[in-house]
Automatic annotation (TrEMBL):
TM stretches of this protein: 12-35
UniProt source species: Bacillus thermotolerans
Catalytic activity, reaction form: Cleavage of hydrophobic, N-terminal signal or leader sequences from secreted and periplasmic proteins
GO cellular component: plasma membrane
EC numbers, comma separated: 3.4.21.89
MF (Gene Ontology): serine-type endopeptidase activity; signal peptidase activity
Organism lineage: Bacteria, Bacillati, Bacillota, Bacilli, Bacillales
Active site: S39, K76
Family, as annotated: Belongs to the peptidase S26 family.
Protein's name according to its UniProt entry: Signal peptidase I
Cellular localization per UniProt: Cell membrane; Membrane
């Protein structure tokens, strides 16, 4: 009887440790998220399941998850970092006056008759010439149908949950995205 009781408590301890580790990993390191909507198409599709990496630095063109003003998490691409000027002119991205190619938009550019991204400057949208310290400017890849930095302004880094680049469900779409 004592042996059975001891074995039971060993199983309980192992179970509690496993639950604790899973909670720590999910809260501090990685977490799953489901893409809701079409604002990141063609890169991400509605219903894709992704892994959010909560560690590391946010870099330009990373796909990030952040808490949006509507008490909802958004998935968007980082375009502007602190101190950057951002401008779209003739459907081309300029950061700090330098042109940047966006290969992830080519599929949509081929399908549209007009510009995919209308002209704008960061100052026209936010009233500031540069992205403020501790904030980023984000855009969805589906520029014609994305509620992003053009509507909500810059995003405070404290609201960024993490970076995501791995689609793990559905299994037939398992991939790493750029």
């Amino acid at each position: 009887m004592a042996k059975e009781k001891n074995e039971f408590w060993e199983w309980v301890k192992a179970f509690l440790i496993a639950i604790g580790l899973a909670a720590v990993i999910r809260y501090f390191i990685i977490a799953p998220i489901v893409v809701d909507g079409e604002s990141m198409m063609p890169t991400l599709n509605d219903g894709d399941w992704m892994i959010v990496n909560k560690l590391g630095e946010t870099e330009r063109f990373d796909i990030v998850v952040f808490h949006a003003p509507e008490n909802k998490d958004y998935i968007k691409r980082v375009i502007g970092l602190p101190g950057d000027t951002v401008e779209y002119k003739d459907d081309k991205l300029y950061i700090n006056g330098k042109y940047y190619e966006e290969p992830y938009l080519e599929q949509y550019k081929e399908q549209t008759s007009g510009p995919l991204t209308p002209d704008f400057t960061l100052e026209e949208i936010t009233g500031r010439k540069t992205v403020p310290e501790g904030e980023v400017f984000v855009l969805g890849d589906n520029r014609l149908f994305s509620k992003d930095g053009r509507h909500i302004g810059t995003v405070d880094m404290d609201e960024v949950v993490g970076e995501t680049s791995v689609v793990f469900w559905p299994l037939n779409k398992l991939r790493i995205v750029d």
